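Q: What residues go here?
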């Protein structure tokens, strides 16, 4: 899906990202209102912004101070552009302070910092920001700032203050600039969505005309326009939701010129190859070639402990196999395939980019994603990434429209590098992979048996690469420790650890230590994202 194709038909709400951990939530909240939104770096060029022709621009929060010498800012000419085109601008937290500073006001270090829940009070009737809220009405919001507005720019008025007296909301309807010092996108601001909804529809006049049906039709057209009538395309199927939906979409667009390949890299879950191939053949009706490359992948990974190196090696080996598959297809059809389809999602793209103010561009590189940062630069195949602007729940909605089986759509995410990022250290050492497969199977099956699978976004086991002392069969043991991880989430960008019943955990731990040879201790990961990522590597 190309952003330009979408914005030509829909009102775009463009978010300029200044590094807030909540920026992606703004994107999601707006899309939930059937309005298309995109997030790009807050320091993007003016041309990057104008080419997208946004109806509304939101300046996100961020960890910086606007008066710091290296603070990220919007490009020169930005104010002139939005005023000439009549674009509405909303600043959130840092974004509000950026508006104030750049339009002639003053921001200073606050006398009192405001973090967490805070009550604000509306100061006037008829505010564009708060709509029908009357003077004196109060609401609880989520604050996260140390600086505050000391002087307003000409033409602006303060329309809400915090209980500590700090500026909480500002507006200049004539110039179409607005600002909220708090985060309306988080659930800790209970009326935040009402504020965003009113701002977009009543103040900005945006239309709620973005649907998954439109995405499907536009993407099919885009693929057909990209892929020549005699071109052949390879799709790498991982067994996950993303690649399956991407393949189904491309198959709808070009039919039998799509050739799917499923690679068993020796890093799959318990009986994954046979289970996945059965699903592809019986339910998705996709033409799939299965390649067993276990020996090749594991030999390349032998002795490698750095997670980034693992990802790069795995990405490179996948591409080598795809190139070989392409050569076989060339012999068969007389023309080598030109494109490779991947199920890259929007969070993959976001997490693989660096943040403003970091010396690079955009939000911090958390990890090189296997679809984004793990591929070699000399790859011969061109990429088709039909889902790269979608979140996971949107991909599932798209799959449902195309009749992808519900059971498949509800599968928990599985990383492209597979168990390589769930074994800490060398994946080839000892019996680590087989041990992890057995532990993971017990954990997941127990979750299914308890009727909890659909409540959980992702659950898996981790081989920690450490050993502990235990007592098994009245004898001292020195065996492996495994970790269990389960989280709830809407899009994978943030996640909360799942609260299991203690009896359930006791049962799972007992099953694992009784059934899996070489494991004498089970630990539970109770860390949310942030501060951790969902995967361990």
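A:
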């Amino acid at each position: 899906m190309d952003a330009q194709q979408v914005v030509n038909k829909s009102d775009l709400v463009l978010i300029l990202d200044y590094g807030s951990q909540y920026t992606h939530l703004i994107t999601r909240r707006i899309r939930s209102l059937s309005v298309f939104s995109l997030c790009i770096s807050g320091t993007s060029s003016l041309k990057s912004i104008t080419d997208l022709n946004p109806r509304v621009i939101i300046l996100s929060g961020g960890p910086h101070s606007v008066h710091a010498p290296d603070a990220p800012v919007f490009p020169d000419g930005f104010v002139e552009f939005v005023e000439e085109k009549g674009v509405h601008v909303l600043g959130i937290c840092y974004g509000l302070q950026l508006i104030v500073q750049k339009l002639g006001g003053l921001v200073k270090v606050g006398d009192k910092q405001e973090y967490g829940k805070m009550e604000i009070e509306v100061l006037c009737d008829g505010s564009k920001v708060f709509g029908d809220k009357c003077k004196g009405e109060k609401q609880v919001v989520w604050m996260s700032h140390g600086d505050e507005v000391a002087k307003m720019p000409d033409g602006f008025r303060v329309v809400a203050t915090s209980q500590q007296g700090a500026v909480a909301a500002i507006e200049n309807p004539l110039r179409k600039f607005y600002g909220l010092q708090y985060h309306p996108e988080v659930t800790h601001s209970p009326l935040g969505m009402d504020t965003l909804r009113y701002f977009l529809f009543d103040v900005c006049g945006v239309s709620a005309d973005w649907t998954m049906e439109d995405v499907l039709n536009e993407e099919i057209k885009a693929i057909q326009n990209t892929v020549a009538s005699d071109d052949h395309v390879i799709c790498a199927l991982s067994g996950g939701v993303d690649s399956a939906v991407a393949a189904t979409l491309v198959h709808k667009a070009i039919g039998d010129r799509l050739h799917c390949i499923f690679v068993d890299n020796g890093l799959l879950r318990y009986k994954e190859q046979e289970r996945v191939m059965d699903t592809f053949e019986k339910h998705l009706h996709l033409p799939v070639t299965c390649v067993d490359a276990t020996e090749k992948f594991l030999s390349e990974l032998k002795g490698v402990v750095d997670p980034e190196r693992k990802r790069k090696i795995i990405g490179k080996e996948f591409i080598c196999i795809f190139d070989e598959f392409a050569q076989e297809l060339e012999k068969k059809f007389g023309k080598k395939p030109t494109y490779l389809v991947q199920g890259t999602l929007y969070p993959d793209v976001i997490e693989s980019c660096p943040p403003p103010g970091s010396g690079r561009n955009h939000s911090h590189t958390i990890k090189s994603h296997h679809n984004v940062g793990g591929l070699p630069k000399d790859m011969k195949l061109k990429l088709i990434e039909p889902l790269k602007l979608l979140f996971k729940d949107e991909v599932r909605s798209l799959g449902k429209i195309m009749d992808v089986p519900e059971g498949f759509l509800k599968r928990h995410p599985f990383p492209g590098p597979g168990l390589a990022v769930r074994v800490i250290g060398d994946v080839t050492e000892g019996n680590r992979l087989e041990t992890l497969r057995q532990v993971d199977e017990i954990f997941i099956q127990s979750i299914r048996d308890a009727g909890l699978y659909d409540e959980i976004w992702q659950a898996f086991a981790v081989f920690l690469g450490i050993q502990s002392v235990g007592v098994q069969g009245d004898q001292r043991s020195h065996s492996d420790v495994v970790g269990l991880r389960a989280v709830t989430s809407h899009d994978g960008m943030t996640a909360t650890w799942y609260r299991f019943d203690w009896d359930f955990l006791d049962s799972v731990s007992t099953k694992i230590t009784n059934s899996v040879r070489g494991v004498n201790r089970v630990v539970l990961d109770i860390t949310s994202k942030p501060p951790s990522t969902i995967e361990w590597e």
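A: Context that may help when evaluating the design: Confidence is low (pLDDT under 50) at residues 357-373. The CA atoms of residues 450 and 504 lie 8 Å apart.
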